[in-house]
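Entry:
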Amino acid sequence: MPKDVILTEDLLVERIREAGLRLTLPRRAVVRALAASEEPFVSARRIIDHVRESTGRIEASTVYRILDDLARIGLVHHIHLGSGQSGRWHITLDHDHEHLVCEVCGRTLEIPHAEFAPLYELLRSKYGFEINPHHFAVLGCCDDCGPQDDHPHPRGSG
């Protein structure tokens, strides 16, 4: 296991303890799966599979409960991708960005939170709506994939 993965796992474990949560074996296995993932945004299915490979049987509901606990203390965020796709989980020790996700290739860009701040203020002042930006991704097409002819809302059709 690469040294940076061990440090990430150790840091997550430290943050769990600081938050007052018990470090159970299933919780440690989920943290290990998150830290070991080469994907920055990992599906719950991959986490479950990794935990089962390393520790044996675990109920999917247990993994989801652990992920929810980790989200509650700010260690991970659940990014909703829409279009019938399952969401992805993202380690977020310092979450100061939002996500743009290409619906064609899956490429994900992290955009500084400050670049979205004017939009959030507009939604708050004009519509009285406070959004929770850490639970969604802005979906579209990256420059490499371009507009998709079969998309229900082609560019410019609003």
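The chain has a mean pLDDT of 81.
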